[in-house]
Amino acid sequence: SIGRDFNRADRGEAMSQERIDIQYSPLVQENGSHFPDWSLVEARATAPNSALPRPFLSWAGSKRWLSRQIIPLLPRQFRKYYEPFLGSGALFFLLTPNHAFLGDKCEKLIDVYATIRDDVSPVIRYLRPLKPNRDLFYAIRNRPSRGRLKRAAEFVYLNKTCWNGLYRVNSEGRFNVPYGMPKTDFIADFN
Fold first, then answer.
1. What is the pTM for the complete model shown?
2. DSSP string spanning 143-183?
């Protein structure tokens, strides 16, 4: 399992603490512990596609559609959020913790989250002009970039345009999911 520390303070200046607390965070802090505002968490879980922030990836086995059943099982307070099976990050985005350790067996997935946390603007700049296209999909899938920023954007693109958002690799460790013929040109919400 690969994991990285994801603290609010590490996310750069683009989002102030005040904005996070007021608009996004269902957490109340007291003496270093986080107490979720459970009514806000439940409201966000009821409408996972309209809650912000929300996962930017699709992932087989996502907790997104189980979040209403998972909420009653969560601890009533915590200091740091640990997610050993990150995937799309549905629970992470639902709770929006101030301090989190995100892990997953898929090292490339964790690299994407770390890259987006550290340097989202160039990833968006590369991703923005890309539209679902069979030839482009196979070109990117067959010749992944070497640069960290381009690789992260390509991972998101492949995830959004492959069959059912599935992530699978062959015995050589190469992504091998076929093109999924997306119904729309939507790749990501860039706002």
1. 0.79
2. S--SSHHHHHHHHHHHHHHBGGG---B-TTS-B-PPB---S
